[in-house]
Design goal:
single chain; alpha/beta; D-tyrosyl-trna(Tyr) Deacylase, Chain: A; six-stranded mixed beta sheet; two-stranded antiparallel ribbon; 2 helices; 8 strands; 21% helix
Amino acid sequence: MRVIIQRVSEASVVSDGVLTGHIGKGFLILLGIETRDDRKDVEWLVKKITGMRIFQDENDKMNLSIQDIKGAFLVVSQFTLFASMKKGNRPSFIYAARPEQAVPLYEYFIESLRTSSGLPVDTGIFGADMKISLVNDGPVTIILDSRNPE
């Protein structure tokens, strides 16, 4: 499972002209699910994400978590995080999980974030064409991969 986390002052997602999610200060999370992923990957990521201290404290140091600032999450599924460019110029998505596997893990990820953090979690629509708007705060962008825990 792979996530791109962007610290934002605001973010929103629109699908078919309909606003499906909007947050103020918090994390925009782009979530990619791989064929090898399971609930353990979700649990590791949720623990990391909710504990990350990447918001400024009173001394302008990255020392506060999203829970400390009472932020929010916007989670958007993005299978293209598992694009392979080994051959040619057209990406292959053979490592991205199919919807029958990915949807339950996507839903478990969202529910785990809500339960673990107690914070609001807005979402896009799984598998839909979406337009994402954000104001990246910093900018701060962090990539986590449950297969390469660093």
